[in-house]
Amino acid sequence: MEQNTRMSMDQVPFEKLEKVGISRDLIEKMEKREMTDFLNGFRSDKLYTVNARINDQDYRIPAKIRLQSKEDGSVDIKVHPIQRLNVPDEYMGHKFTKEEKGALLNDKNLGKTVELTGRNGQKDNYYLAIDSKTNELIPLRASYINIPEKIKGVTLSAEQKDKLSSGHKVEVDGMMGKNDKKFSATLQVNAADRNISFKDFKQEKQEKQEKSEDQKAEKKAGAKQKLS
Fold it and tell me: pTM for the full model?
């Protein structure tokens, strides 16, 4: 199978994973998308139970895991345990305002892009969000997210695309869900999940009424069939 990830299974440090309490079997049973993210160096979506030593005591704690390539070509394992929710005064060269801290603490999303300085000293635009499972502050380069022309059957306007690209919330109506049911939702880029998230789902009232009427009609038809 062609390898399209930053790292391969041959590079996974299984011995180090065993030391933190994660078996090779758990890794090999990852679903396709999770495995792809794992081999690309992203944090795992799921929490794993890992070994930890705190104040000279051994514990088993929940944490996310990820692979990290080192300069010498070797691969290390990084553990991201659940931490106390906190937004620092400064992060990657950016000083947070009171309003920005409030947005991150309340919405778990900064709601806009900001210029941050990477490890290589280069500045770039990033989205920022807080991981809902570990409370970590997660940066994501704005260039990583491609805003599509259509989402769930709805063609986005230029204004909607600009707002999404800038990290703002956008309300979109008339999207098509499962079983051809239309719904509306609030969309926003989520740096922690590296995607466009959907919140505040609302099924269109007309759709609900039509469904109710269809169900009533089906029940009547069924009753007539039984009687005949």
Answer: 0.80
